[in-house]
Amino acid sequence: MKLRQRIKSMNDNTVAFIGAGNMARCIIGGMVNTGYPAANIIAANPSRPKLDALAADFGIVVTQDNLLAVQKADVIVLSVKPQLMGEVCRQLIAGVPDISEKLFVTVAAGLPVSRYEEWLGPVRLMRTMPNSPSLVGLGVTGIFASRCSNYEKSFVDSMFSATGKTVWLDQENQINDITAVTGSAPAYFFYFMQAMAQKAELLGFSPDEAHQMVVQTALGAATMATQSSLSFADLRAQVTSKGGTTHEAIETMRNAGLELMVADAMQAAIRRAEEMAKTL
Ligand SMILES: NC(=O)C1=CN([C@@H]2O[C@H](COP(=O)(O)OP(=O)(O)OC[C@H]3O[C@@H](n4cnc5c(N)ncnc54)[C@H](O)[C@@H]3O)[C@@H](O)[C@H]2O)C=CC1
Ligand SMILES: O=C(O)[C@@H]1CCC=N1
């Protein structure tokens, strides 16, 4: 119970990332850029290239040995794909005698606390659901805590606040909901932008022009939404002149069932997270 017994200053905790892929990189980048000591961050991954890039970019400690990373750490961030999580947890429980003293944080979709408890025993665990804009400090991370102290919760809150906003969840199943609302959602926006750029190219704009115009418009719209007190519907109404072009575009989307399609897509993401909870 190291984190609870020995109240360290937040930045003194050693944090090990098991799996040094996209999401680990986002969180590590946020932590280092907001002043977390790089010497207190370890990343473990089977292959070298991502480790070398993390060491070069952020000056953190890297290793190909998961057990070594975990032995040195107070906080373990499990950042492998859900399908590999069981294998990784079994390796840790077999190789690290004081595993129950560590605080676990997982970023994996789907897998419930009960599954980690089957693999690791009754550990202190936070399930989190970050999203990829964490890389640029504009992420949203949902967090659900099991068996954790207030100190541990504030530590993890500060870790993820370095990458954007945090949302604390009271019920574990809300993690699946937030996966649909924010975790997977950057891809929805990229898909919409892709579709717009494709049409812009069909209209004769170069790929570069199409890309720039779509990105700038998305950035402008998102920035307006952050700076305005108006609802999305009211912001949309401001663009939509009576009898004008936007009205025609929006009605075409509405008649094609856009709102139902988005709701169905989000429900499909939740359903998949629930399936993963049962099958992985
Ligand atoms: N990509 C995203 O936008 C989001 C991903 N997540 C979650 O983050 C987790 C990781 O996803 P990504 O970073 O996108 O995947 P990724 O594939 O980029 O990273 C996973 C890393 O784990 C490494 N790895 C594989 N086997 C390992 C082992 N036995 N020990 C240590 N490392 C091992 C891989 O080499 C890879 O570098 C997943 O569980 C996913 O559900 C959560 C929210 C958003
Ligand atoms: O697609 C996935 O399963 C993960 C979780 C949210 C974003 N990526």
TrEMBL record:
Pathway: Amino-acid biosynthesis; L-proline biosynthesis; L-proline from L-glutamate 5-semialdehyde: step 1/1. Keywords: Amino-acid biosynthesis, Cytoplasm, NADP, Oxidoreductase, Proline biosynthesis. It catalyses: L-proline + NADP(+) = (S)-1-pyrroline-5-carboxylate + NADPH + 2 H(+); L-proline + NAD(+) = (S)-1-pyrroline-5-carboxylate + NADH + 2 H(+). It is an enzyme of class 1 (oxidoreductase). Residues 172-276 form the Pyrroline-5-carboxylate reductase dimerisation domain. Gene3D superfamilies: NAD(P)-binding Rossmann-like Domain (3.40.50.720), ProC C-terminal domain-like (1.10.3730.10). Its main location: cytoplasm. It is found in: Cytoplasm. Its EC number is 1.5.1.2. SUPFAM superfamilies: 6-phosphogluconate dehydrogenase C-terminal domain-like (SSF48179), NAD(P)-binding Rossmann-fold domains (SSF51735). GO terms for molecular function: pyrroline-5-carboxylate reductase activity. The keyword NADP applies. It comes from the Bacteria. Belongs to the pyrroline-5-carboxylate reductase family. Catalyzes the reduction of 1-pyrroline-5-carboxylate (PCA) to L-proline. PANTHER family: PYRROLINE-5-CARBOXYLATE REDUCTASE, PYRROLINE-5-CARBOXYLATE REDUCTASE 3. This is Pyrroline-5-carboxylate reductase. The lineage of its organism: Bacteria, Pseudomonadati, Pseudomonadota, Gammaproteobacteria, Chromatiales. The gene is proC.
